[in-house]
Amino acid sequence: MNYPDSVHFLYALGNEIQTAKFGLERIRTTLEALGRPQDRLRFIHVAGTNGKGSVCAMIESALRAEGLRTGLFTSPHLAEPTERIRIAGRPVAAERFADAFHRVHRVVEHLLKAGAIDLHTTYFETVTAMAMLIFAEEGVDRVVLEVGLGGRLDATNVVTPELCVITPVDFDHEAFLGKGLESIASEKAGILKAGVPAVFAGQRPEVVGVLENRAAALGIAVTRTTDWRTRDLEMDARGSRFVLATDSDLRIQCRLAGEHQVSNAVTAAVALLRLGASHRAIQAGIAAAEWPGRLERVRERPEIILDGAHNPAGARALAAYIDRFYAGRRVRLIYGAMRDKAIAEMSGILFPRARQVVVTAPKQSRAFSPEAMREVSDHPNLSTAATIESALEQVRDASPADVIFITGSLFLVAEARALLTESEVK
Question: Which residues contact 213 (CB under 8 A, 6 or more apart)?
């Protein structure tokens, strides 16, 4: 099976969120039939609502700077599914992806015929099994493993890691994880395991008790980033610099923009220190880390910035960034979201900060209708566009001093990124 065929089959399994089937039996049975590749690997397991992708990227980059051969598993992807499985910082080759898919699919079909599993593995379960197979065959030294959804019943939660990391927990995917923060936090805490130390980022008060109680019940050692002091913080629209106080000060430079990335960099640095990484590798790795689609500047004069702020916490982080660095500039906003998101809350946070709002929709069946946004928002200068291409046409009169943010769904960000990195906006 070639790469396009494998991708087509994965997509045919259905949207990975909407068709999620919680439970670990399918993935465990599949991995067992594949020879338990996860048992030959060493993991850092990262859960949370926001920031986990950035933290994963920073940890992986620093481990690579230490001279280790790394695997990185993240989701979702922006352009190609191969982005989800990275070896030594590079997406796996399309041919390798297709080969792994074929082998996993063949095993799953056999298990189905034998009645060993109830359903074909989901999109996410299938790619998780593929990643385990590829990482084991590549003989990577460490795998940085990002949870897909929740934690307790996520397909990645079949590993026993060296370290668990939980980034800030907030509201998202309430239909799957529960309506309250305590319920969501309980699902995230499900990755914690006896004998495995953990790093907790700063959390909301409702979350702290849930995480701490679970850690205490398991008797595990917890390192809290709130116990670490930073000083000499300098931030601009393109990143930050600060000192993390340790036995010998650790000077951090982070190219990922936004105040929230300072917290993410602290979380990554503390996790790396817990893993025994050198100061040199931590500094070099965090300085080199990239995470596309998150406050990513893809054009200058006017600036065009992409940010996948797909939940309220992400919207608040983007709003804080706009307030800090663009309060005196004319902001134009292109926005598109999925129907299952907190659209009224997110638009209420972001739209008042923009002089012009263009609402569009990514090319997804679950996309929120641009026309329906008029019932949600009373922004005085709101227009709609059927596609990202037509939305960009509506802001083509932007002056060099303006700034254009394209935000909401990561699907929309991916479409915009592909368009804007291939050709200039005309």
Answer: none
